[in-house]
Design a protein that fits this description.
With about 180 residues, this protein is mainly α. It has a domain at about 60-185: Tetracycline Repressor, domain 2. About 80% of the residues lie in helices and about 0% in strands. It has helices at about 5-20, 30-35, 40-45, 50-70, 80-90, 95-100, 100-110, 115-140, 145-165, 170-185. Helix 6 packs across helix 9. The chain starts with 6 loop residues before the first helix and ends with a helix.
């Protein structure tokens, strides 16, 4: 079996970074090619359009999120799983305060256009909501979906404020409050 080139992976990794740092609309295929070290002409071998590359970025983000959720569920304690998720957001607070939420920002930007990417982007936040609701259900809470929406809305709001004011502390403070709220349920 032939060895798969790492060029595709480098292109996706570069797009993940640039879409987060600059935004989807402000990032060209030439920018991605330069960042990845892959000649621009080779980009089209792997991705015919920028939307094709965005689909690969979304798939990568979904896969990464699934790995994160699996990591957080290792103890099989739903409260600890939610705390783990919040801790990961705190760990990312520096980047989030500088560039915005990598998932929320991409979803928001792609939802401005009515394209096939809109539904794919919705999977990102949808997956996080479903996972969070599953944790609340494991805690035997009947309004699990609404609790998950509250947690996600709070943390995405905190991400927006942290980015607007370039203050990672906002995410850290909200994570502490969220943990206290979860404990009180």
């Amino acid at each position: 079996m032939p060895r798969t080139s790492d060029k595709r992976e480098r292109l996706v990794d570069a797009a993940v970074t640039l879409f987060h740092h600059r935004g989807y609309g402000q990032t060209s295929l030439a920018d991605i090619a330069e960042q990845s070290g892959v000649p621009l002409g080779n980009v089209y071998y792997y991705f015919k359009t920028k939307d094709d590359l965005a689909n690969a970025v979304i798939a990568e983000r979904i896969h990464h999120q699934q790995d994160t959720f699996a990591e957080c569920e290792q103890d099989n304690d739903p409260q600890a799983s939610l705390y783990c998720f919040l801790d990961i957001l705190v760990d990312m607070s520096g980047d989030i305060s500088r560039y915005g939420c990598p998932i929320g920002g991409l979803c928001q930007e792609l939802n401005k256009e009515d394209t096939a990417l809109t539904d794919r982007a919705d999977e990102l936040l949808g997956q996080a909501l479903k996972w969070s609701a599953k944790q609340f259900r494991k805690m035997e809470l009947k309004d699990a979906t609404q609790l998950a929406q509250h947690m996600m809305a709070t943390m995405h709001g905190a991400s927006l404020l942290a980015n607007t004011f370039n203050k990672p502390r906002i995410i850290k403070d909200e994570a502490v409050r969220m943990k206290a709220w979860i404990k009180s349920l």
